[in-house]
Design goal:
The complex is a heterodimer of chains A (259) and B (224). Chain A has one domain. In chain A, 77% of the residues lie in helices and 0% in strands. In chain A, helix 1 runs antiparallel to helix 6. Chain B has one domain. Chain B has 224 residues and is mainly alpha-helical. Classes of the chains: A mainly alpha (259), B mainly alpha (224).
Chain lengths: 259, 224
């Protein structure tokens, strides 16, 4: 049980690796240094794609959770996918914050600024960290999936509220540059290419990792089932004959009652 | 019975338990006051720092106490199989949600009244525009009680409630802390026009999570 066929996954894995190497070459040497920020700006080729993947991952989690909750499309596939995607989302959000911090030190002069988008991202990180904690709580597969799907949607609904309230609170971050239609951003051709290629390479990476994580989840579920079966088998083999077990239970119950 | 009657039944039950067991009175309310004192120890009380940051300290204290109130709200259902009783009572799950959230909101309101006296006396705060202040407080309390009850049942259904509720709830209610604190600051400064946008945020939050709660509580209670 995997999302992609094994051969497709393998090809995708190699393609991702090549794309990341190409991205590294372009990011480090291909693209010219920024006029103002010099080499520190090169972190953007990782920071922006990582942020994009984080949003994509949380979007996938929300959609998958919604599909699980919708009775007609309910299937364990969506639960696994929601969990796998949220894990990737938290990881990429963490990376985004980390790289943003590394970039902020030379450019802004501080590791951290109380700026709207930074704070929103940090809250996002903790929102889904809580979701992952909830996912680790054991329970029946159905019950756990239901809890997690509802929790994912509760968290997702909160994102715009957090975003707007934090934006009102303070704004210092660079406005969205590439997507701003008024500005018609002029980024140097190679720089723009590297940025977009970074987004492309990270999207491949996301799909590949999602498939792998999904596969791992299937294996884990299979392992749990197999361990349970084995335990039952051992139990049956260990007891000489079933009636004796019953007699033992009765004796224990009687002993308990006497106490 | 209609929804409101059923909800008031559940709220009445929870509040009666609190009135008789006095856990909220003897543990949650003093906790809030202790936190206020600790803030005074942590920040220098002589230079007016406390007065400036009082709204933020007030709402952080309310959130911390809300964690206790929520964990208490579901602890009383854990004993004697009360949750099974609730589930099989035939009450509308939406009504159970509204009732439990209302009980938490009433407890928080009592705490907030006490803490308000606390910040006036200890932090030397003078309340400015009472209207926006009161409205912001009511809406924030409803928002926290609704999300708290929702996460309370979510955690109760998983059996790891003490540690899970804070990590789930606090990030979600961060806009409430932000909105309520800014609204209080504006109201205390007498600039009530600055408070209204934040009151809007608090209202959206309260309405949104109360509706989600009424929808989602039933399926979650089934699992609990």
């Amino acid at each position: 049980m995997t999302l992609l066929k094994p051969t497709v996954a393998r090809v995708l894995g190699w393609t991702t690796l090549v794309a990341l190497i190409v991205l590294a070459l372009f990011g480090l040497w291909g693209a010219p240094a920024d006029a103002v920020q010099s080499d520190a700006q090169r972190l953007m080729y990782l920071h922006v794609p990582a942020a994009w993947i984080a949003y994509l991952a949380f979007g996938v989690t929300a959609i998958a959770s919604g599909l699980w909750l919708w009775p007609r499309t309910r299937s364990p596939v969506w639960d696994r996918m929601a969990g796998a995607s949220a894990e990737l989302g938290v990881m990429f959000t963490g990376l985004t914050l980390l790289m943003g911090s590394l970039w902020g030190r030379p450019v802004w002069g501080v590791w951290w600024a109380w700026d709207a988008r930074l704070v929103t991202t940090a809250v996002l990180f903790f929102l889904y960290l809580g979701y992952l904690a909830l996912r680790r709580v054991p329970g029946t597969a159905e019950g756990r999936a239901k809890r997690c799907a509802i929790a994912a949607l509760i968290a997702f609904v909160d994102v715009p509220i957090v975003h707007f309230s934090v934006t009102w609170w303070r704004t210092l971050h660079q406005e969205a540059t590439v997507f701003d239609p008024e500005l018609k951003a002029h980024i140097h051709g190679v720089m723009a290419f590297t940025l977009w290629f970074g987004v492309f390479a990270f999207t491949l990476l996301f799909v590949y990792l999602l498939d792998r994580r999904y596969h791992l989840e299937c294996l884990q579920e299979g392992l749990e089932d197999r361990e349970l079966e084995q335990a039952i088998k051992d139990r049956v083999r260990g007891s000489v004959s079933p009636p004796k077990v019953e007699a033992k239970v009765e004796a224990t119950v009687e002993a308990g009652a006497e106490r | 019975m209609n929804l409101a009657q059923e909800a008031s039944l559940v709220a009445g039950k929870d509040l009666r338990i609190e009135a008789r067991s006095r856990v909220t009175l003897q543990q949650v309310l003093p906790f809030g006051l202790i936190v206020l004192l600790l803030f005074a120890f942590a920040l220098d009380p002589d230079r007016g720092v406390l007065r400036d940051v009082a709204p933020g300290l007030f709402w952080v204290t309310v959130l911390l106490a809300a964690l206790l109130a929520i964990s208490r709200s579901f602890a009383i259902e854990a004993a004697n199989g009360a949750r099974d009783g609730l589930r099989m009572s035939g009450l509308d799950p939406a009504a159970i949600f509204l009732g439990k959230a209302a009980a938490v909101a009433v407890e928080l309101a009592a705490l907030e009244a006490l803490l308000t006296v606390g910040v006036i006396v200890l932090f030397d705060v003078s309340l400015g525009a009472i209207g926006p202040l009161l409205l912001a407080t009511v809406l924030a309390t409803v928002g926290v009680a609704a999300t708290g009850t929702l996460y309370g049942v979510l955690a109760a259904s998983s059996g790891a409630r003490e540690t899970l509720v804070p990590v789930l709830l606090l990030p979600v209610v961060s806009p409430v802390l932000l909105g309520a604190t800014r609204a209080w600051e504006a109201a205390i400064d007498g600039a009530s026009s600055d408070a209204w946008p934040w009151i809007g945020v608090l209202a959206v939050f309260a309405v949104l999570y109360t509706s989600i709660g009424t929808l989602a509580f039933g399926p979650l209670l089934e699992e609990a």
